[in-house]
Amino acid sequence: MNSIQILQISFLIFASSFIIIFAVFYFLLKRKHNIKQQLVSEDYSNLDLIATTIKDDKFLVFLYLNEKTLIKPIEIIKDKILGYCFIKNINKEFEISELKNIVIKDSAYSIEYSFYDDGLGNIKKILNQASNAKQLVCIRYQRPSKPDLQVNSLTGKRYFNGLKRGEVSIRTIGLIQNITNKNISQIEYITAFCNTKEEERTFKINRIKKVSVLNI
Questions:
Q1: Is 211 helix (H, G, I), strand (E, B) or coil?
Q2: What are the structural domains of the chain?
């Protein structure tokens, strides 16, 4: 084999390698473009869905960073959506590109019971059902009343001015424990993971003034 033949073979190997590399690069580039187009298309679809939900005054359930979330959408801000989050009980922004499995809901709660209208027994019943079904529950929780101590401006002495109503807070809880079907009327406290405070808390049942099961 002479030098010319060696050069020809080398050129053919080089040309073949270049064609293969170019083909692989083109395939990867095209695949990346198709994925990007698909994501853009999904984002536009999500935008339409969100805009419709805001217009119709409804609610959204979706997966966000692998966690199921329920919100009342307020407005679209560029590539984000601002909404009231029923898990954290605050207004919160979400990246639209990260929203998965979006579902429109007519209401935020599947069932609601009030201590004043429905009684403590029904509150316990719903908490028990939510515990068994591992559902998230939003509660309206009232702290105990405290003495209202005032200072007399003339004498400088403190005096009792009655009881000051305890603060009311909204909490979303899950992993509810200490609720059972047996002797449920005797249960006074529950322990649950508080999503608002991001830790386990103990709640006295007769201070729960309203209980609402999240519609997710």
A1: strand
A2: 11-105 (2.30.30), 109-214 (no CATH)
CB 111 within 8 A of CB 128: no
φ/ψ bin of 57: left (φ > 0), alpha (ψ from -120 to 50), beta (otherwise): left
* Per-residue confidence band for 155, with pLDDT thresholds at 50, 70 and 90: confident
Kind plus residue range of the DSSP H or E element containing 111: strand 109-114
Predicted model pTM: 0.69
Task: Compute, in degrees rounded to 10, the torsion defined by CA atoms 196, 198, 202, 208.
Answer: 10
- Region 179-187: mean pLDDT is 55
Is 50 strand, coil or helix?
Answer: helix
Assign residue 178 a region: left if phi > 0, alpha if psi is -120 to 50, beta otherwise? left
Q: How far apart are CA 172 and CA 73, in angstroms?
A: 18
pLDDT per position as a tens digit, 31-72? 544 434 443 444 557 888 899 999 999 999 999 999 999 999
Distances (CA, A) of 135 to 42, 71, 156: 30, 16, 53
Q: Residue 148 half-sphere exposure, CB side, CA atoms within 13 Å?
A: 7
